[in-house]
Write a structure and sequence with these properties.
Length: 440
């Protein structure tokens, strides 16, 4: 009898263990490019132009505001604040976006603070996308959109930006990557719930033109589709280009959620303060997800970001404004990296915005050993080989494409140029030495 009892115990244990532990919504989304490439960069890189974060300090006015919030005597800043956003932050964000959008905003219902733009994206899909809904994603895309749509039970539908190389032999610009209007229109149907727009776009740096945004807006209105507008790089536009907010186009305010990030805006990605701006009819559902998951994000960081925005509101459009200075500095850094890459034949696609730059590596095939029987795309093999053999880290572009389309875009890698001058010089040294080795 003793033996029998123990047998049945072990049976029931086994039965429990053979049950799948993983929820179905995680199927197919367990692979993640960042885990592998962040580790490779940490292990091998001498110069890391991979992941998107600045290696220069956040501005003094911001870090000083954080110190004041931390130890300036208001001990309540160490406690919970309002769930949907620390009042000083939602108030100043509302004031700021009133200016940008030219409409009145209620800080309590038209603005919400999130843990980075990442969480804002997650909320949009959780709150607005149902089982069976389709969500249009423009390729190449910030890679988390796809798993987030899937986790919400939705189906991503991809439409690529198509490169049209200039005929005069000039370097390509991110503006040369364009949507085919007929192809885009063909993706909209009665199943389409939302489109994700990311302008300026990570990874290409494309800043969508008024015409392109107008086309997207027209289709959204025609098919009653929502727009999840990821604008985290809104201040990072170059060469006098203008960032246009799709929410300001006719018929779009009521169907658009604007997403922003203090991490990108104030060069403090580790703070993880993000926000959404939009109509109450959409934001009230995001608040439901927020209330039932995170409640709110760190009060001190929100207080400091509020002070940062207060400063920027006072200096709006003036030369001392960080939102004026940062893109100026980054444009110079972009130009240095463009020169370095062009000089070695790694043809850069000049970005109109963001702090990313995509370069063409098709001239470097003979440098990277072939791996027989491997179906790993060339850009992945190249990026791994480059970090291991040259100490320079970058990200393969095909990581920003759907499974079905990634094999069409394996000749490019993405660099981040939000780096100190010394870092970009070190990258240039690596590239120059590599070129000399190739020619000698
Ligand atoms: N959207 C895009 C397009 C991004 O590139 C990033 C960061 N790489 C995010 C959202 C996430 O921003 P945050 O760090 O504020 O969560």
């Amino acid at each position: 009898p003793h033996l029998k009892a123990s047998n049945s115990v072990s049976h029931s244990l086994q039965a429990k263990m053979s049950r799948p532990v993983q929820a179905r919504r995680l199927e197919g989304i367990d692979k993640n490019i960042w885990v592998e490439f962040v580790k490779l960069a940490a292990t091998y890189s001498k110069v890391n132009l991979g992941q998107g974060f600045p290696d220069f300090p956040a501005p003094d006015f911001l870090t000083e505001a954080f110190s004041r919030a931390l130890s300036g005597g208001n001990h309540m800043l160490h406690q919970y604040t309002r769930a949907f956003g620390h009042p000083p932050l939602v108030k100043v964000l509302a004031q700021f976006f009133e200016k940008l959008l030219g409409r009145d905003l209620d800080p309590m219902t038209n603005v919400m603070v999130t843990v980075g733009a990442y969480q804002a994206l997650f909320y949009c899909f959780q709150a607005l996308v149902d089982e069976g809904d389709e969500v249009i994603i423009i390729e190449p895309f910030f890679d988390c959109y796809e798993p987030m749509v899937k986790m919400a039970g939705g189906t991503p539908v991809f439409v690529p930006l198509r490169p049209n190389p200039p005929k005069d032999g000039k370097l390509m610009s991110s503006a040369d990557w364009q949507l085919d209007p007929a192809e885009l229109a063909s993706k909209f149907s009665e199943r389409t719930k939302a489109i994700v727009l990311n302008s300026p776009n990570n990874p290409l740096g494309k800043v969508f033109s008024r015409e392109e945004l107008g086309l997207i807006a027209e289709l959204c209105v025609k098919h009653d589709v929502l727009c999840i507008s990821d604008e985290v790089y809104e201040w990072l536009v170059y060469d006098g280009k203008q960032h246009i907010r799709i929410a300001s186009l006719q018929g779009m305010w009521d169907r658009t959620v604007i997403i922003g990030s203090a991490g990108k805006t104030f060069s403090a990605t580790g703070w993880k303060v993000g926000w959404v701006v939009g109509p109450d009819r959409l934001l009230k559902h995001l608040r439901t997800v927020h209330q039932n998951s995170v409640y709110h994000c760190a009060t001190i960081a929100q207080e400091a970001v509020a002070q940062g925005f207060q400063r920027e509101l006072t200096l709006y459009g003036k030369p001392e404004s960080y939102f004026v200075q940062l893109p100026k500095e980054l444009q110079q850094k972009r130009d240095w990296l463009v020169q370095s890459l062009d000089g070695v034949g790694m043809k850069p696609i000049i970005p109109e915005g963001t702090y990313f730059l995509v370069a063409d590596i098709s001239q470097f095939k003979s440098d990277v050993p072939d791996v027989p029987n491997s179906d790993e795309p060339y850009d992945h093999r190249f990026a791994k080989w480059m970090v291991k053999n040259k100490g320079l880290a970058a990200i393969p572009l095909s990581a920003f494409y759907s499974e079905a389309h990634k094999n069409n875009y394996t000749n490019f890698i993405r660099f981040c140029f939000a780096k100190e001058e010394a870092t970009l010089k070190a990258a240039n040294d690596i590239l120059q030495k590599w070129k000399q080795e190739k020619t000698s």
